[in-house]
């Protein structure tokens, strides 16, 4: 049985994880051409296709998390996305300058930590304060 405090904490976690990607997706959308250029410099295959997909994942995934819509599936998708962006965007193993390598490594490991948070949401679900809970019979205890 899930306590009310648990659901509140899960809600705060959902919002905390979503804010970063909501902001990032909005910035990518506003600087679309620059984002495509960045993807090209990072060696991302098919940047013209990857850019709208990345923006959609960040914006739609964040909105779904805030409202608790399909949280388990979105949590898994966002975890995969965080790992992929860590590998393509924070490849510290290719950086030769020590200070820069340390900075990029921190961002790489932060992405993996964020992926861990998304995986926890995949396991716990959205909690009672969510659309998912409204769809679940008996008050959404599985959330």
Automatic annotation (TrEMBL):
It is a multi-pass membrane protein. GO terms for cellular component: plasma membrane. It comes from the Bacteria. Keywords: Cell membrane, Membrane, Transmembrane, Transmembrane helix. InterPro entries: DoxX (IPR032808), DoxX-like_oxidoreductase (IPR051907). It is found in: Cell membrane. The chain crosses the membrane at residues 7-26, 46-67, 74-93, 113-131. PANTHER family: INNER MEMBRANE PROTEIN YPHA-RELATED, OXIDOREDUCTASE CATD-RELATED. Belongs to the DoxX family. This is Putative oxidoreductase. It comes from Paraburkholderia caballeronis.
């Amino acid at each position: 049985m899930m306590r009310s405090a648990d659901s509140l904490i899960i809600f705060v976690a959902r919002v905390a994880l979503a804010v970063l990607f909501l902001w990032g997706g909005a910035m990518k959308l506003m600087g679309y051409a620059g984002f495509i250029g960045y993807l090209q410099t990072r060696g991302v295959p098919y940047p013209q296709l990857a850019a709208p997909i990345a923006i959609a994942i960040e914006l739609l995934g964040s909105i779904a998390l805030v409202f608790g819509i399909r949280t388990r599936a979105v949590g898994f998708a966002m975890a995969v996305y965080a790992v992929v962006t860590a590998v393509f965007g924070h490849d510290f193993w290719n950086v030769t300058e020590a200070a820069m390598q340390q900075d990029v490594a921190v961002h790489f490991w932060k992405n993996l930590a964020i992926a861990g948070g998304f995986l926890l949401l995949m396991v716990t679900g959205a909690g009672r304060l969510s659309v998912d809970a409204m769809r679940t019979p008996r008050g959404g205890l599985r959330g």
